[in-house]
Amino acid sequence: MLHLQNYINGALAAPAGGRYLPNVEPATGRVFSHIPDSDAQDVARAVQAAEAALPAWRRLPAEERGRLLVRISELIERDLERLAQAESQDNGKPVSLARVVDIPRAASNFAFFGTAAQHFASETHFQEGVALNYTVRHPLGVVGCISPWNLPLYLFTWKIAPALAAGCCVVAKPSEITPYTAFLLSELCIEAGLPAGVLNIVHGTGPGAGQAIIEHPAIKAISFTGGTKTGEHIARTAAPMFKKLSLELGGKNPNLIFADCDLQEAVQTSLRSSFANQGQICLCGSRLFVERPVYEQFREQFLAGVAQLTVGDPQDAGSRQGALVSEAHLQKVLGYIALAHEEGGRLLAGGQRVQLPGRCAEGYFLQPTVFEGLAPDCRVNREEIFGPVVTLTPFDTEEEVLAWANGTEYGLAATIWTRDLHRAHRVAHELQSGIVWVNTWLHRDLRTPFGGMKSSGVGREGGLEALRFFTEPQSITVKL
Ligand SMILES: NC(=O)C1=CN([C@@H]2O[C@H](COP(=O)(O)OP(=O)(O)OC[C@H]3O[C@@H](n4cnc5c(N)ncnc54)[C@H](O)[C@@H]3O)[C@@H](O)[C@H]2O)C=CC1
Ligand SMILES: O=C(O)/C=C/C=C(\O)C(=O)O
Q1: Shared domain check, 464 and 399
Q2: Is the same domain home to 24 and 152?
Q3: What tens digit of pLDDT does each residue of 143-186 get?
Q4: Which of 52, 141, 375, 471 could be cross-linked to 137 through a Cys-Cys bond (beta carbons 3.0 to 4.6 Å apart)?
Q5: What is the DSSP letter of 209?
Q6: Which atom of ligand 2 is nearest to the CA of 151?
Q7: Residue 187 shares a structural domain with residue 226
Q8: Does the pLDDT of residue 117 top 90, yes or no?
Q9: Residue 12: what pLDDT?
Q10: For 42-62, what is each residue's pLDDT tens digit?
Q11: Which residues have a catalytic role annotated?
Q12: Catalytic positions (predicted)?
């Protein structure tokens, strides 16, 4: 059986304590690999290696750093099929999705930041006859990157690539639930010739390796994506140590579907935004508010689309829905389905675990599920479910739908469907949401600031925002 290894100081390494954790394939419920259960000793070794690599890495011209990152991107593209298979096996997502979304985006993350570093200019402020002020952005130093299980390589590289591009050295931990592609990435970094210690990947649990990263005094910043509760814990631990924090947390995203929209497109895209990756994307729209004149039409077409979402073996080309990531997560989502019944919801589709035949008989499959008739402020409409469960609610006025859309503690993403541009801008400006899409969803230009308001996070990643996060500005003023 496959035993994954840490990647420390340029080489693969067993965990210091010799302990391993089982890693389960969600589609089968069977253990298919073991991962290091690393502890503070492994993190200390990784930090030591990163500190040793830092002086040379930060002095390397941005073009040279960029060349290495672009090389990693090319190797990811070369190994696309292998990585897509690995991601699907580890996470339960259809391999067809990993092939077109997860792995291409991981390659783009390295390519984008490999070149972005060369466009990252420093600011100057000239006061004629008085002074020249200029800003130098120094790499922060050694930074920690911690990522979740839903988009494993996609989000892991979204953090690592800008940190490396900015001249930082990294100690990174992927989710213990989906470590496989991060391990394969360490092999590609060795092949690309990334200098030893520049990137270190330590596997293990949140309370084990993760906690050691956030507590380590030499780690200057933490970039984290994951659950809001974990984000709170990280902030409580790291903020008093004056670490810089970028926290990308949960969401409970609304889709606002106005009667004048292109209904067919709204239905098709809402199917994707509801159920892509089994609804396990923080940007998924889980509350669908539909203007009353088109509510019934939307519901009929949407449910017809849901009926086409075949739940099946992630390896099958025909599967549109794979497995949820773990038995524990499946039980959490089933708990919310039970709660939706208790809160008076009418089940329109799904609601049951799926028992597949053959190799997937013990897998964690769930029908895509739709409820209506729930109050906009009930728990199911306020709490993050992070699974294939959405609610439909009719609305009558713009004011009403805005109040409902903004009525949760979250503020990550929202989608507006309308042909009225004035309304689109007006409503977008009123939404308490870090990201607003109009007549589209998951359109991602990597130059745009990415992140949430309220309990959805602190700070922004993406484009120059990420490079700013991983650097420390120093103002220098010269008297003229
Ligand atoms: N992107 C998102 O918005 C995500 C949201 N979630 C939400 O969070 C809920 C819980 O899922 P989990 O897998 O438990 O997410 P999590 O937030 O616990 O895990 C994310 C990452 O944080 C690490 N981590 C956990 N505790 C830590 C600690 N004390 N110090 C440092 N790192 C730590 C984990 O090992 C993992 O790498 C999900 O049911 C879902 O609702 C989960 C994953 C992603
Ligand atoms: O950067 C993106 O395009 C998507 C990010 C998604 C998450 O952060 C998430 O699902 O956690």
Answers
A1: no
A2: yes
A3: 999 999 999 999 999 999 999 999 999 999 999 999 999 999 99
A4: 471
A5: I
A6: 10
A7: yes
A8: no
A9: 98
A10: 999 999 999 999 999 999 999
A11: 248
A12: 248
The answer to whether residue 446 sits within a structural domain is no
Ligand 2 pocket mutation pick from 97, 100, 151, 249 by most atoms within 8 angstroms of CB: 151
- By residue count, the chain amounts to 480
Whether ligand 1 lies within 6 angstroms of the CB of 173 is answered as: yes
Distance from residue 148's CA to the centre of ligand 1 (Å): 6
Residues 225-278: tens digit of each pLDDT: 999 999 999 999 999 999 999 999 999 999 999 999 999 999 999 999 999 999
For residue 159, give the ligand nearest its CA. 2
% of the chain residues with pLDDT over 90: 98
Report CA-CA distances (Å) from 370 to 94, 328, 367, 380, 395.
Answer: 21, 21, 10, 12, 17
What's the total number of domains in the chain?
Answer: 2
Whole-prediction pTM:
0.97
81 domain-assigned: yes
Helix or strand holding residue 30 (H, E): strand 30-36
Asked if residue 467 and residue 405 are part of one domain, the reply reads: no
Whether 365 is in the pocket of ligand 2, judged by its Cβ within 6 Å, is no
224 lines ligand 2 (CB under 6 A): no
Say yes or no: CB of residue 146 within 6 Å of ligand 2. no
Whether 445 is in a domain gets the answer no
CA of 465 to the centre of ligand 2 (A): 15
**Residue in the block written with tokens 């389905």:** 337
The residue nearest atom 8 of ligand 1, judged by CA position, is 227
Which atom of ligand 2 lies at the shortest distance from residue 150's CA? 10
Whole-angstrom distance, CA of residue 242 vs CA of residue 10: 29
Residues 411 and 327 in one domain: yes
Ligand 1 contact, 285 CB (< 6 A): no
State the residue range of the domain holding 263: 254-438
Give pLDDT, residue 121: 83
Residue 444 lies in a domain: no
Four-CA torsion 269, 327, 155, 322, nearest 10 degrees:
-40
Q: Mark whether 341 and 431 lie in a shared domain.
A: yes
Give the per-residue pLDDT at 232.
98
Q: Which residue has the tokens 């009403």?
A: 400
